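dumping the sequnces here before i forget
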Amino acid sequence: MIKRQNEFTSDLRESMRGGNGVVELKNFASTEDMNNKGRMFGTITLKPGCSIGWHVHEKDSELFYILKGTAKYSDNGNEATVNAGDVTYCPAGTGHSIENIGDDNVELVALIVYA
Amino acid sequence: MIKRQNEFTSDLRESMRGGNGVVELKNFASTEDMNNKGRMFGTITLKPGCSIGWHVHEKDSELFYILKGTAKYSDNGNEATVNAGDVTYCPAGTGHSIENIGDDNVELVALIVYA
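..and the predicted 3d for all of it:
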């Protein structure tokens, strides 16, 4: 199956996890597509100043592959700057947050797999 | 955990699945990182003319998210052109192949989840 880029709907989340502004999500795969092994494989776009607030992944793990932009990432409480090409890994039982601290959009691929 | 882009090693595969030229893989996540739910979350780069030959996914499913370039994709035997932003889905028990038919590199994010 081929899904064309214009077939994906944007899911706009305001104050996602208590963060700032609006976050745009496009999920490419249903849980069924992922053989019930996960619930997200898609892109997340954060405009300058926008963020996903701190949250803990209780029953799944999340990876981000940064495609564009510059963000402040909290890696279970330890803050660091991430840029295009970097990968973040939030194992089940730990938390994270991400904020666009640059002048351009941050775009990343997110993957959530169940624990 | 944050993994920096320069920490990933390139896995160069010649004639991958019987395809043409050399294919570059960077895997961001071990099977353990994926909670034993999959075996690949990373990028694949194909230079012009290079390809991954036809193969069937027997025990897992694979999704491609095309980041750059133009490719000919065989979707279980049905050929189509895919471009940046398109997503291909190869469920377990079906096959696919991909060939760079453009003048620039094809880069994509690949995800393999177990069936």
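The mean pLDDT of chain B is 97.
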